[in-house]
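Q: Could you predict the 3D structure of Amino acid ABC transporter ATP-binding protein?
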Amino acid sequence: MAETPLVTLTNVQKWFGAFHALQDISLSVRSGEKVVVCGPSGSGKSTMIRCINGLEACQGGEIRVAGKTLTADEESGREIRREVGMVFQQFNLFPHLTILENCTLAPQWVQRKSRAEAEERARHFLDRVHILEQADKYPVQLSGGQQQRVAIARALCMAPRIMLFDEPTSALDPEMVKEVLDVMTDLARDGMTMLCVTHEMGFAQAVADRVIFMDHGRIIEEAAPRDFFQTPQTRRAQEFLAQLLH
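A: Sure. Here are the predicted structure tokens for Amino acid ABC transporter ATP-binding protein:
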């Protein structure tokens, strides 16, 4: 792994009105590292992910991605998003476009790729997430698990340096969760840098290099998966794991 972090958050603060959603968040992710973020609902996990991608503006501290500092300037946000792939809870596919068109739109418009080049890349990544045979269908014709795999392929088509996952399986029926986690596991094994908000603790134990535990807008525990799951250091983490794993 490279010594210089690919993503760095330093004393990041975020408010929604009077609500202090992120409090002094400091975190770094190195290239090739897989970091899982967990914690109770409302702890600030998704807000942190959205701030890294410039989808939410923080009111204090600093965020750097691939050597670039995120500022309030819109161009800064666009530059950051060129380096970052984002997969949301909901799939956010364009319903009027085919699966292939969903995956080729951004490379053509943002990266100025030719249609042929964009389609070649899209087919490559659709094949990588095991859904190439659905390329000419529309999102409504696919299951939730298939749509989320398309969303992952669409993000990969932009050649991101890091993938952010915001509870990517939370909107899925239980039988569809495994197919998405399998794709994410394959990406991790291939060396993709990943920061993933999830409650899928089996995935965390199998894939993560580090687990970050958040509560009330703060990072209150950070450890290797084995240490976090076997000997959590804080009472809050102990309570969280007791509810989740039993």
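Q: Anything worth pointing out?
A: The beta strands are 5-16, 19-30, 34-38, 60-65, 68-69, 84-87, 162-166, 193-197, 210-215, 218-223.
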